[in-house]
Amino acid sequence: MNKEIAIVGCGVIGSELAQNIDMNKIPNCSLSIIFDIDKNKLKTVFDKLTNKPAVFSNFKDFMESPQFKKIDLVIEAASITAASLYGIDVLKGGKDMMIMSVGVFSDYDFYREIIHLIKMKSSNVFLPSGAIGGIDLIRSIKNHIDSITLTTTKNNKSLKGAPFFTNFKINVDEILNKQVIFEGNAEDAIKQFPSNVNVSALISLAGIGFKQTVVKIVLDPEVTNNIHEICVKWKFGEFTIKISNRPSPENPKTSYLAILSALECLRSICSPDLKIGS
Ligand SMILES: NC(=O)c1ccc[n+]([C@@H]2O[C@H](COP(=O)([O-])OP(=O)(O)OC[C@H]3O[C@@H](n4cnc5c(N)ncnc54)[C@H](O)[C@@H]3O)[C@@H](O)[C@H]2O)c1
Predict the structure, then answer these.
(1) How far, in Å, CA of 56 to CA of 62, rounded?
(2) Annotated catalytic residue: which of 228, 254, 262, 266?
(3) Hey, how many other C-beta atoms are within 10 angstroms of the C-beta on 235?
(4) Could you report the per-residue pLDDT of 91-103, keeping only the tens digit for each?
(5) CB contact at 8 A, 163 and 197
(6) pLDDT at 4
(7) Would you place residue 249 in the very low, low, confident or very high pLDDT band (cuts 50, 70, 90)?
(8) Which of 187, 189, 217, 240 is the most exposed place for a label (fewest CB within 10 A)?
(9) CA 118, 120, 121 angle in degrees (round to 5)?
(10) Which residues, 6+ apart, have CB-to-CB distance to 69 below 8 Å?
(11) Residues with Cβ within 8 Å of residue 244, at least 6 apart in sequence
(12) Residue 96 β-bridge partners
């Protein structure tokens, strides 16, 4: 059955998803709505599409539109704030959701409400693996984990704009040598670096939670890639997964892998498929 899709956020991830759906690269779905608070972003994406969706720049109009009633899946690719502001209303509206800004789940009230709504409405919420791999493995062993440490290494440009630098009055451009700039749990890491460590949220949800998951952030002016190293010690062994991703040219905070992961997640939602991995 064809699924009608709404995309919230027309940045790097949202625009790629929109164009792939428009070009029929993902079977069994069509793009019915795009929504962004930035009208320029909306126009840029809209102009590239052959099959024109409805366009909204206001959440109330989006939710009350006749097009919204027919939507099967809302894809959030905007920000933690957007996921937090809209997620609950979208699920209350009986829709499935894909959430890219996974850091939103470090807010326990939001997390609890989403789980409650999933059960009440029999809805699905999909969290793509994003910029990392190994989530299947972490899920399988979650009851036997002793420790998980995520070390994320990025350059000045990729980390620029994070609240951490304003909160601690640090000029990110003045850091010239490789150094660990943050070490703490995933909950605090997401507060300080909301656009940089969505992967720590995914690892926390799959594994041992936000308080137990250790996050180190290394700023290295010399690296060009976004590097995530996940070290897990568990009852029957240990493993390390290291992923080195080239950033997307349009948004250095986002790895190209995150876009491919969202596309693959959408493909598996829309088509009956072999379900591979745990
Ligand atoms: N899960 C992962 O591994 C992973 C990886 C990369 C990015 N992300 C997250 O996915 C999200 C999208 O990433 P991106 O690179 O496409 O970002 P982007 O900055 O390129 O685009 C975000 C878009 O969302 C819009 N937006 C922001 N707030 C909004 C709101 N309240 N309502 C409607 N639109 C709003 C912006 O105007 C912008 O057009 C970000 O939160 C990012 O941190 C997750």
Answers:
(1) 6
(2) 228
(3) 10
(4) 999 999 999 999 9
(5) no
(6) 98
(7) confident
(8) 240
(9) 70
(10) none
(11) 225, 226, 227
(12) 73
Instruction: Report which secondary-structure segment, H or E, holds 249.
Output: none
Name the residue of 61, 79, 195, 243 whose CB sits within 8 Å of the most ligand 1 atoms, as the mutation to test its pocket: 79
pTM for the full predicted model: 0.96
Distance between Cα 31 and ligand 1 center (Å): 18
Query: Dihedral of the CA atoms 103, 166, 224, 38 (nearest 10)?
Result: 60
What type of residue sits at position 93? G
Element (H, E) at 39: helix 39-48
For residue 268, count other CB atoms closer than 10 A to its CB: 16
Q: Which one of 76, 228, 254, 255 would you pick to mutate in the ligand 1 pocket, going by the greatest count of ligand atoms within 8 A of its CB?
A: 254
C-beta separation of 8 from 77 below 8 A: yes
Order the strands of the 237-245 sheet from edge to edge: 179-185, 214-219, 145-154, 226-234, 237-245
Print burial letters for 199-221: b (CB count within 10 Å at least 16), e (below 16). Answer: bbbbbbbbbbbbeebbbbbbbee
For the chain, give the mean pLDDT: 96
Quick one: tokens of 72? 């099967």
Residue partners of 266: CB distance under 8 A and separation at least 6: 5, 17, 21, 26, 29, 73, 75, 98
* Ligand 1, residues at Cβ distance < 6 Å: 8-14, 35-38, 41, 77-82, 85, 100-102, 130-131, 195, 198-199, 251, 254, 258
In the chain the domains, ranked by start, together with CATH numbers, are: 3-130+257-270 (3.40.50.720), 135-253 (3.30.360.10)
What the block records as the tokens of 28 is 């069994």
Contact 198, 215 (CB under 8 A): no
Tell the residue number behind the tokens 């499935």, with chain if given: 96
The crossing angle, in degrees rounded to 10, of helices 108-121 and 80-92 is: 30
